Amino acid sequence: MLGFRGDVAVITIDNPPVNAGSAKVRAGLLEALGALGDRNGIKVAIIIGAGKTFMAGSDIREFGAPLSDPQLPAVIAAIEACPVPVIAAIHGAALGGGFELALGCDYRIAQPGARIGLPEVGLGLVPGAGGTQRLPRLVGMEAALELVVSAKRIDAQRGYDLGAIDALSDGDILDDALAFADTGLAKRPLHAMAIAPFEHAAVKSLSAKLIAKAKGRPAAEKAAHLTLQSLEHDLRDGLEIERAVFQDIRITPEAFAYRYQFFAERQASKNPFDAQAKTIAAVAVVGLGTMGAGIAYCFLRAGYKVIGIEGDQDLLDTGLGRIDALIEKDIAASRITPEAAQSMRENLLGNASIEAAKDADLALEAIFEDLAVKRDLLGRLSAVLSPDALIATNTSYLDIDAMAEAVSHPERFFGLHFFSPAHIMSLLEIVSSTSSSAGAIASGFAIARKLGKQPVFARNSYGFIGNRIYAAYRRQAEFLLEDGAEPPEIDAAMIGFGMALGPFAVSDLSGLDIAWRMRQAQAASRDPKARYVRIADQLCEAGRLGRKTGAGFYDYPNGKPVASPIVTEIIDAERRARAITPRTIGSHEIQARCFGAMVNEAVLLLEEGVALRGSDIDVVLVHGYGFPRWLGGPMWHAAHMEPAALDSAIDLAAQAEGVTFRRGDAATALATLKNQN
Ligand code: T1G
User: Fold this and answer.
1) Crossing angle for the helix pair 338-347 and 313-332, nearest 10 degrees?
2) Both 476 and 562 in a single domain?
3) What's the gap in Å between 60 CA and the centre of ligand 1?
4) Which residues form the 3-hydroxyacyl-CoA dehydrogenase NAD binding domain (predicted)?
5) What is the whole-number distance in angstroms between the Cα of residue 131 and the centre of ligand 1?
6) Closest ligand 1 atom to the C-alpha of 72?
7) What b-and-e string marks burial along 70-92, b requiring 16 or more CB atoms within 10 Å of the CB?
8) Is the pLDDT of residue 570 over 70?
């Protein structure tokens, strides 16, 4: 949309909700720029976004198919060719192609909190419209590399400090851009700028560090190379090389998987019920252990009032100390300002009695994972709270229908399953009991949004979505132990698959006792015919609970994990007791069996209605369990595997489990995903 304010042209991008740079937007921009040439007396042009943001980037939905003209580089070239200086007036976000469009302008003015950056590598892409070529000319090679390869977003204030933003606007962005336009601007295209001199060795090591941090993914490597290469080409050649790399990489399976996850996250974030969320201002968190303190901190950071409750004064003091330590840590890391910390402290009350919860809009329990203890607390809590206050449990696997029986007005009770560490992990399972109301679940989704968490809806099931799939994966890893593989081999194979950590390293990190308690709780109902591995139980009985006790599946002589002869002896003894002749098991079989176990459990969760959709399961596994994002998630990866390879993986896992897997309707579930772009 082209308008005029005196001798200033104002071009407005208007494509709700985030002004994604669709084909229509690109055509509109080109038309508006073309019209400028026919208009006399115009001395400056401003490009601005309508609604809440400048331009969120190119339209990701277009990347799976041939891109229609005009493509973004052509629009940016038209900006650089525009006879008058062009100002990008940025509010909200200028990301990816949005930021590249702004880099094509002669000047950039922004609101200090506006977000800028090149997130492409985080989508398995490289910037495709000049980001790797223009940014080094503006901010220097090191800062450009950091932004391109890390895909991180920065606020415009930081952009201003780096030289990417010319002026900051603390008022109306258009008014301030008009004022800026009146300061005698001249054309200043970036292609005329040279890249400031830099220390080559330092830049090369920075590049290597950034690529390693991105797990060496192809997009990170290519983006780093393109950025470094900007030094060797004039801008025109560099742009052509960059565009060619972008066109190739955007249709790779990895890029498809990343885009799938992007949209899966947003779909999972939508409240599945059409109901009003309750307004929540004050939250009582009962139980301030590691999890409870982290959860309380999440609520404080999001601006809620928090009543921290523990069983006695000592426990309360310790719990409040944990919260304070989290505040101090974030101040030290400049993640929060001292002023924000102060208001958090003012919003935090501690009390050793659950009576203090009486005015809370939501009470959340994060106490010991024992059903009887939780039921007792929930009964007492529901008597203290007002009848319309919500009650949530942070249990990670216990039966929330059994808990709901202890709650008066059980429709207000639901699960808010945080992942440890609660203040860092993004995933939040919103769990419905059979009596949870739509309003309670809607409130859970509203809380997740305010906490900046990634919500996924789940119905009640042992372990909900994530822990149930992870338990199947861990069982399979333990079968592999009995069959002949060693912990380091299994962990290495699963890291080779792409998991952030191997299953035994995870057990040692999170503590073997958590799963041990889960198994003990299940003992009575366990299928006697099902294969059951006792190795982990024996480690727990021997006090080897993981890193926190200095030993688990591994020894930690100097804090580093090493294979343990004690564990080897326990494994050998179990093999003998089972009359299993250990055999060498290759990484391919390890990966296939572990993956097959995950997929089978995932499909069963869909069949049972515990998960609403396969993509939700993928969001859970990527956000909560370190499943490689570049594979999209277990369901997406399964949907795109060779069918024979998938069948073999599930069959291998089933044979090892010793029961016939209810394979579930894998074909339907996976076919649905396969057709998603
Ligand atoms: N393309 C298409 N749809 C998009 C989109 C995009 N770039 N960004 C958001 N949406 C949709 C999203 O799916 C959702 O749809 C709705 O907009 C609101 O999004 C050539 C190659 C800007 C910070 O990576 O980070 O440019 O669910 O819920 O919380 O070099 O959207 O409502 O149907 O996230 O207010 C680079 C991605 C692209 C930025 C706003 N850009 N977007 O957050 O809203 S690649 C990005 C975001 C590129 C060039 C390269 C966020 C946001 P629906 P939302 P939000």
Assistant:
1) 160
2) yes
3) 7
4) 283-459
5) 17
6) 20
7) bbbbebbbbbbebebbbbbbbbb
8) yes
Residue from 15, 18, 149 whose mutation best tests the ligand 1 pocket (most atoms within 8 A of CB): 18
Count of alpha carbons within 13 angstroms of residue 498, beta-carbon side: 17
Q: From the candidates 80, 120, 369, 657, give the one annotated as an active-site residue.
A: 120
Q: Provide the phi-psi class of 326: left if phi over 0, else alpha when psi is between -120 and 50, else beta.
A: alpha
Looking at the CA of residue 246, tell me the nearest atom of ligand 1.
Answer: 21
Single-letter residue type at 302: A
Domain assignment of residue 19, yes or no = yes
- For the whole model, what pTM was predicted? 0.94
Give the CATH number of the domain where residue 415 resides. Answer: 3.40.50.720
**Do 318 and 453 share a domain, yes or no?**
yes
Q: What is the CATH number of the domain that holds 551?
A: 1.10.1040.50
Q: How far is the CA of 630 from the centre of ligand 1 (A)?
A: 18
Which protein residue's CA is at the shortest distance from atom 47 of ligand 1?
56
Would you say residue 157 has pLDDT above 70? yes
Q: Whose CA is nearest to atom 8 of ligand 1?
A: 56
Q: What is the pLDDT of residues 510-563, one digit of tens each?
A: 899 988 988 888 888 888 888 999 999 999 999 999 999 999 999 999 889 999
CA distances from 280 to 92, 302, 388, 457 (A): 26, 12, 11, 20
Contact between 427 and 624 (Cβ < 8 Å): yes
Model confidence pLDDT, tens digit, residues 397-410: 899 999 999 999 99
Task: Looking at the CA of residue 131, tell me the nearest atom of ligand 1.
Answer: 30
Residue 510 in domain? yes
Catalytic annotation on 100? Answer: yes
* Domains held by the chain: number: 3
Handedness of CA 292, 293, 294, 300 (dihedral sign): positive
Residue 465 has pLDDT above 60, yes or no: yes
Going by CA atoms, what residue is nearest to atom 41 of ligand 1? 57
The three-point CA angle 400-428-592 to 5° equals 95
| pLDDT for 662 | 54
The answer on 480 and 456 residing in a single domain is: no
Looking at ligand 1, which atom is closest to the CA of residue 61? 2
Same domain, 205 and 128: yes
120 is catalytic: yes
* Nearest protein Cα to ligand 1, atom 28: 266
- C-alpha 176 – ligand 1 centre gap (Å): 26
Around 213, how many Cα atoms within 13 Å sit in the side-chain half-sphere? 17
Domain-ending residue, one of 460, 478, 505: 460
Give the atom of ligand 1 at the shortest distance from the alpha carbon of 52: 35
Region 641-654: mean pLDDT is 89
The Cα angle at residue 27 between residues 22 and 28, in degrees rounded to 5: 95
Expressed as residue numbers, the domain containing 224 is 2-184+198-251
Spacing, Cα 17 to ligand 1 middle (Å): 9
Give the closest residue to 448 by CA, choosing from 554, 556, 362.
362
Tokens 């004690």 belong to: 566
Ligand 1 centroid from CA 175, angstroms: 26
Residue of 62, 80, 100, 242 with catalytic role = 100
The residues lining ligand 1, judged by C-beta closer than 6 Å to any ligand atom, are: 17-18, 20, 53, 56-61, 72, 93, 95-97, 100, 119-120, 123, 125, 127-129, 131, 263, 266
The Cα–Cα gap between 414 and 625 comes to 22
By C-alpha distance, which of 183, 139, 182 is closest to 160?
Answer: 139
